[in-house]
């Protein structure tokens, strides 16, 4: 085979074997690495399955729940304990089923967390890439804006904005949150972009006249994609805490719309927190388990992204 | 050195001005006006109009903003119409409570995180390091307010070890008052410390690991300094100042957290004052608090940057 270097003279069989060799020598694709890493780590695989099945469950099952009926006050069921009268997790002070509110609330909270992660990560990644790539005055200006955003007391600003906007819904709420949660990502991406911009392939592209946006989004971005995936997974776990925290304080979703945060807010009543634990504890435990599982997945993803830390290195 | 500090302070000024404009405009766009709450049933619409007129509520926004700034520089933040008290007095009382709780939390956090970070770095890659990493990671990813609620339930209500509301018990006096104050911040402080160590532990750990492989440690080792003394006198001392710089940055986190901590523990500090003022639409207090928190964030960052630039000459910009 070594003697035959001219491609045109090769037989199809030889070409095929060459292609197979090249495929073997090439680095495995990102999804393949991830899959191998998850297969090697049983707890991670279990967390992944739990999270995916749970998210699918809370996204699909609310379609079969009549939310009008669910949120109707039913005095007869006042604070029914769990496992009584068809109430799996009991009922709250208005006689509304906790289990159903938990399902619909999870959908709302996770939905907002997903939306927030997508929007804020997109802003953060674009901001960091542009700032890090261009440097100079553009970087300086963008970093001053970053400093200014970091100075704002986030929780207070969100609460003030929610108070000003009277008629808000899940979408406006997600947008308001996104305004204040892109900075961490942008800082991370910027520092990696700064290092990446100094590499030879970028200089080569600049010299050969490739357009800036193409270098940024088609060349640098794929090269830091592992960092982006890790950061997005971890911020998803964090973002679950953002909406639930504000809903808990009463400035997230309106109180008629169940969310994990409004469910935990049942604990604000001293009677609920001591005697009627089922009104708030399930939601609290759900948040803890969900955040732990997602962050654990994030850890595995970040391990897969770093070749020296992988468990499976073949 | 001084040049760096001066430069940092100069950059701050436009930021503060921008913040004040933003806060002012936000307060202006809130529903209602400062007289909504103090309207006497007998006051007529024309009287209110007159009040608004003489208080300049119909002036263009930049003129109102300018008046507000002038008052601000005279230390006059306006009058809270819910409490009928000058905002400065109102915040002053609450600020001491918040300061007390935050300082306590910070001291506990450092007391817990420094030894853990040092220990983890010392035993890099071994069992203690893994255990500490799992601890920091678990505490980091659970939303803090959930922990506070569960902590209040378990230790405050079920076990009844700690008071569940307020900053001091109403019956305490003299020495007992100090004890009572301490008891009231103990649970939120402990929870805050236990669940807020991640940054300091990780930073300390990486400092120690860096130092372990540095030339000065190798020199000390070859001179025959015992390993224990190297950690105590060389590595720990060298990492202390950059770690101290973290204090400034953590102000942001503490202030943000104070809104949740104080609401959950009904602790009368600035965070709870903010939530109360929002529900009563007490705009003068809201504006003052947002501005104050923003400036405190800025000062915290400034402090950290200055400490870091003293420690590490590379950070100083020419």
Give a brief rundown of this model.
The complex is a heterodimer of chains A (314) and B (318). Helix content of chain A is 69%, strand content 0%. Chain A is an all-alpha fold.
Core attributes:
heterodimer; A: 314 residues; mainly alpha; MetI-like fold; 0% strand; globular; B: 318 residues; two-stranded antiparallel ribbon; 75% helix
Protein topology:
The complex is a heterodimer of chains A (314) and B (318).
Chain A: H1 12-25, H2 30-40, H3 42-60, H4 67-70, H5 98-134, H6 136-151, H7 154-164, H8 170-180, H9 183-197, H10 200-207, H11 212-223, H12 225-249, H13 260-264, H14 270-274, H15 281-305
Helix pairs in contact in A: 2-15, 3-15, 5-6, 5-8, 5-9, 5-12, 7-8, 12-15
Chain B: H1 2-28, H2 45-54, H3 61-73, E1 79-80, E2 85-86, H4 87-122, H5 127-141, H6 144-158, H7 175-194, H8 198-212, H9 215-223, H10 227-264, H11 270-279, H12 283-311
Antiparallel strand pairs in B: 1-2
Helix pairs in contact in B: 1-12, 4-5, 4-7, 4-8, 4-10, 6-7, 6-10, 8-10, 10-11, 10-12, 11-12
Tell me what the structure shows:
The complex is a heterodimer of chains A (314) and B (318). Chain A contains 15 helices and no strands. In chain A, 69% of the residues lie in helices and 0% in strands. With 314 residues, chain A is mostly helical. The model of chain A has no long low-confidence stretch (mean pLDDT 84). Chain B has 318 residues and is mainly α. Chain B has a single domain, classed as Orthogonal Bundle (MetI-like fold), CATH 1.10.3720.10. A two-stranded antiparallel ribbon of chain B has the order 1-2. In chain B, a hairpin with a 4-residue loop joins strand 1 and strand 2. At the A-B interface, helix 6, helix 7, helix 12, helix 14 and helix 15 of A face helix 1, helix 5, helix 6, helix 10 and helix 11 of B. Chain B: Belongs to the binding-protein-dependent transport system permease family. Chain B: It comes from Weissella hellenica. Chain B: One of its GO terms (biological process) is transmembrane transport. Chain B: It is found in: Cell membrane. Chain B: It is a multi-pass membrane protein.
């Amino acid at each position: 085979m070594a003697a035959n270097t001219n491609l045109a003279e090769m037989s199809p069989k030889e070409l095929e074997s060459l292609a197979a060799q090249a495929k073997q020598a090439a680095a495995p694709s990102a999804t393949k690495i991830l899959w191998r890493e998850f297969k090697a780590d049983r707890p991670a695989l279990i967390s992944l399955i739990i999270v995916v099945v749970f998210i699918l469950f809370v996204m699909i099952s609310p379609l079969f729940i009549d939310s009008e009926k669910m949120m109707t006050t039913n005095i007869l069921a006042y604070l029914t304990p769990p496992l009584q009268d068809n109430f799996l997790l009991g009922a709250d002070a208005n006689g509304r089923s906790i289990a159903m509110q938990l399902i619909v609330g999870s959908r709302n909270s996770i939905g907002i967390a997903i939306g927030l992660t997508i929007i804020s990560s997109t802003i953060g990644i674009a901001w960091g890439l542009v700032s890090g790539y261009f440097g100079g005055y553009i970087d300086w200006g963008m970093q001053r804006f970053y400093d200014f955003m970091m100075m704002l007391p986030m929780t207070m600003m969100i609460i003030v904005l929610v108070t000003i906007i009277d008629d808000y819904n899940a979408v406006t709420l997600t947008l308001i949150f996104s305004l204040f949660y892109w900075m961490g990502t942008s800082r991370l991406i910027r520092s990696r972009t700064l290092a990446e911009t100094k590499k030879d392939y970028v200089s080569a592209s600049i010299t050969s006249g490739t357009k800036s946006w193409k270098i940024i989004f088609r060349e640098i971005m794929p090269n830091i994609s592992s960092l982006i995936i890790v950061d997005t997974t971890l911020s998803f776990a964090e973002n679950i805490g953002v909406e639930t925290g504000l809903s808990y304080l009463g400035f997230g979703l309106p109180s008629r719309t169940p969310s994990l945060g409004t469910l935990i807010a049942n604990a604000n009543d001293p009677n609920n927190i001591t005697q009627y634990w089922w009104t708030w504890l399930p939601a609290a435990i759900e948040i803890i388990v969900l955040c732990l599982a997602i962050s654990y997945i994030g850890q595995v993803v970040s391990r897969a992204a770093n070749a020296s830390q992988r468990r499976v290195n073949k | 050195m001084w040049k760096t500090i001066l430069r940092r302070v100069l950059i701050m000024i436009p930021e503060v001005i921008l913040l004040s404009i933003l806060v002012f405009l936000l307060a202006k766009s809130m529903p209602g006006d400062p007289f909504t709450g103090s309207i006497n049933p007998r006051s007529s619409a024309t009287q209110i109009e007159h009040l608004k007129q003489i208080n300049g509520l119909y002036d263009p926004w930049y003129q109102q903003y300018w008046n507000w700034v002038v008052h601000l520089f005279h230390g006059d933040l306006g009058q809270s119409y819910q409490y009928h008290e000058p905002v400065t007095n109102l915040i002053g009382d609450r600020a001491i409570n918040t300061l007390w709780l935050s300082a306590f939390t910070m001291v506990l956090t450092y007391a817990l995180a420094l030894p853990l970070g040092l220990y983890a770095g010392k035993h890099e890659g071994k069992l203690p390091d893994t255990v500490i990493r799992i601890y920091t990671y678990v505490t980091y990813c659970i939303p803090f307010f959930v922990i506070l609620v569960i902590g209040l339930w378990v230790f405050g209500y079920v076990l009844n070890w700690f008071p569940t509301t307020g900053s001091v018990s109403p019956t305490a006096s003299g020495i007992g008052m100090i004890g009572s104050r301490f008891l009231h911040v103990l649970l939120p402080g402990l929870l805050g410390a236990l669940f807020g160590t991640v940054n300091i532990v990780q930073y300390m750990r990486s400092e120690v690991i860096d130092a372990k492989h540095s030339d000065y440690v190798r020199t000390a080792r070859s001179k025959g300094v015992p390993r224990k003394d190297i950690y105590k006198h060389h590595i720990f001392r060298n990492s202390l100042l950059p770690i101290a710089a973290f204090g400034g940055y953590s102000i942001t986190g503490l202030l943000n957290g104070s809104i949740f901590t104080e609401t959950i523990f009904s602790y009368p500090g600035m965070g709870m004052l903010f939530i109360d003022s929002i529900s009563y639409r007490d705009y003068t207090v809201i504006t003052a608090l947002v501005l104050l928190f923003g400036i405190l964030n800025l000062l915290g960052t400034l402090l950290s940057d200055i400490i870091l630039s003293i420690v590490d000459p590379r950070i100083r910009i020419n």
